[in-house]
Amino acid sequence: MNDSPFIHLFNVADEYFLYDVNKNNILQIDFLLFKYFVNKNSKEMDKSIYSSIERLKKRGYLSCNKIEKIEHPMSKIIQSYLTSKLQSICLQVTQDCNLRCEYCVYSGNYLNRSHDKKIMSLETAQNAIDFLIQNSSESDRVCIGFYGGEPLLNFDVIKDTVLYALEKYPGKNYYFTLTTNGTVFNENYLSFLEEHKFSITISIDGDQKIHDMNRKFKDSDKGSFYTIMKNIERIKESYPNLAKRMMFSVVLSVSSDFMGCNEFFTNTNILKETELSVSTVSNRYKDGEHNVQKENNIISQRYELFKCILILIGKLDESCCSKMVKNYYYKLREHYKQFYITENGVKPISHPSGPCIPGAFRLFVNVDGNFFPCEKVSEISSVSKIGDLKNGFHYQNINTILNIGKLGDDMCKECWAYRYCKVCVASVDNLTNLSIEKKKDCCKRIKKEVEMMMKEYCFVSKYNAIEEGN
């Protein structure tokens, strides 16, 4: 049995740190102790090192306890959970779209289905609502989302589905969401969305040059920028309540200009007060070469992220935070707070933190009534399909996804970063099985990200910039 302490070592400049996995605490240590642990507990130990180790052990640090068995704590109750606590359903009301975006996961460049004319029938949508209500008795509030393709191409089904839910199950507390490319709004659609308090997410990638590079109308070289901007102006002017619940989805492609996007969303009046969700083009299920960001975009983004650190230590005002990274800034604060939570040790039966509870938080129902954990997985994957409206949930697939840590479980048992893992089925899905090679690649990347987060935390903590519990 390995009796080495379950720790991770790193340094920030000339300061040295120890992350104790059992306690979930980061401690600053001196160089001699750091060197001792780096050398794998060398037999040479002077009195100062011995005294330091004994003091740490008395405080409960340096335990060698590790995970003995990988098993998600929800495994034994997943069936009862999913039959009573569904929180959200996302209906793919059409697979058709009036745009042909270069980077779209349905563009043919990914191991996924492509755009086609298929739409969800009202009967399928109503059955999905029935399924949601029947399996959400313990959820105070449920979300019904609409997705595509471009969902407004099947507006009648959206409208009738909302009215069906409200009329058949009037006692339920609903909120409705819509993800749209923003090009097909009309007064009828907008009035309905405002009346029923929809939250809407509109895709816009930056100014006209940046946006139109990728987001063109079907069978045309015409970009969609001006159409979207006119619709946003219309919403702002005539539908103020809907405007308050509007946000924008920004995709940074290999052709994007990060600083150009930043300037656009900062200085365009009708966009200033609206929240952004910023992501890069997905490499999941990519068929062929991966998307690689341009070096100047990476440098610009890192500069804005560095400013977030300066804000946290009080060197810059929060108003200096770029809209493009504001969500990252808020996530940083939340991540850092995790290190204030002292744990009582590694549980012998445990699981890395990566997977969600498949289907519970965002059950994705495609036009055919098939279930997937979310819209990010491939619809042609047999691994990621977790059921259908006719037969209900497929618990064997759900448990496989939930217990993704069992794939190469020895890696997870020994992993110092398991509490901060982000590996999910979309990261390791080979369409017919889960790939251990993909998981290994994910693990390397995630460990680097977690260590960077720890380094940032140590730097920020020197300035007492994060107050416990705030």
From TrEMBL:
<keyword id="KW-0411">Iron-sulfur</keyword>
<protein>
    <submittedName>
        <fullName>Cys-rich peptide radical SAM maturase CcpM</fullName>
    </submittedName>
</protein>
<feature type="domain" description="Radical SAM core">
    <location>
        <begin position="83"/>
        <end position="316"/>
    </location>
</feature>
<dbReference type="Pfam" id="PF04055">
    <property type="entry name" value="Radical_SAM"/>
</dbReference>
<dbReference type="InterPro" id="IPR058240">
    <property type="entry name" value="rSAM_sf"/>
</dbReference>
<dbReference type="GO" id="GO:0046872">
    <property type="term" value="F:metal ion binding"/>
</dbReference>
<dbReference type="GO" id="GO:0051539">
    <property type="term" value="F:4 iron, 4 sulfur cluster binding"/>
</dbReference>
<keyword id="KW-0408">Iron</keyword>
<dbReference type="InterPro" id="IPR000385">
    <property type="entry name" value="MoaA_NifB_PqqE_Fe-S-bd_CS"/>
</dbReference>
<keyword id="KW-0949">S-adenosyl-L-methionine</keyword>
<keyword id="KW-0004">4Fe-4S</keyword>
<dbReference type="InterPro" id="IPR023867">
    <property type="entry name" value="Sulphatase_maturase_rSAM"/>
</dbReference>
<dbReference type="InterPro" id="IPR013785">
    <property type="entry name" value="Aldolase_TIM"/>
</dbReference>
<dbReference type="GO" id="GO:0016491">
    <property type="term" value="F:oxidoreductase activity"/>
</dbReference>
<dbReference type="InterPro" id="IPR024001">
    <property type="entry name" value="Cys-rich_pep_rSAM_mat_CcpM"/>
</dbReference>
<dbReference type="InterPro" id="IPR007197">
    <property type="entry name" value="rSAM"/>
</dbReference>
<keyword id="KW-0479">Metal-binding</keyword>
